[in-house]
Amino acid sequence: MTYKRLSSRILSELRSDGRQSLRELAEKFGVSATTVGKRLDQLKEEGILRGISADIDYEQLGYRYNAITRFKVQGDQIEEALEQLKEHPYLNKIYEITGDYDILAIGRYHDRDQMNKIIKKLQGHPAIVATNTSIVLNTHRESAPLPLEGASDSASD
User: Fold this and answer.
1) Does residue 67 share a domain with residue 23?
2) What is the SS3 assignment for 70?
3) pLDDT surpassing 70 at residue 150
């Protein structure tokens, strides 16, 4: 098994169950736990493996509203606006984007009133020129894993 193939297999296994031990992974791949441990360390050093996190159902925790807000920002103040948005605990994904808007943020909220108050507060930032918010009605796919093997070949699929 090549080192690249081992990396893909380790990442795939951790993606499906991040609680597996080095020994369990090594047994699955027919290599030593030391080999798996060294490869994990290298994947972390390369920034490929940023950590292993829990898959949390936020709706079960009371975050019933999921909203996508686009922000139009005064041109020279995008970094300032991004810094403010990154500090907000209810925004769990923030992207700088192209098009009519400059920033896209995805937030989770307990109820409509909370969402309304937070978005209005964010609109009050002097760098924010306009916003557009969409409430997610149903989620059909979220955080779906991408193919890890042959990723450079799959662009033509």
Assistant:
1) no
2) strand
3) no
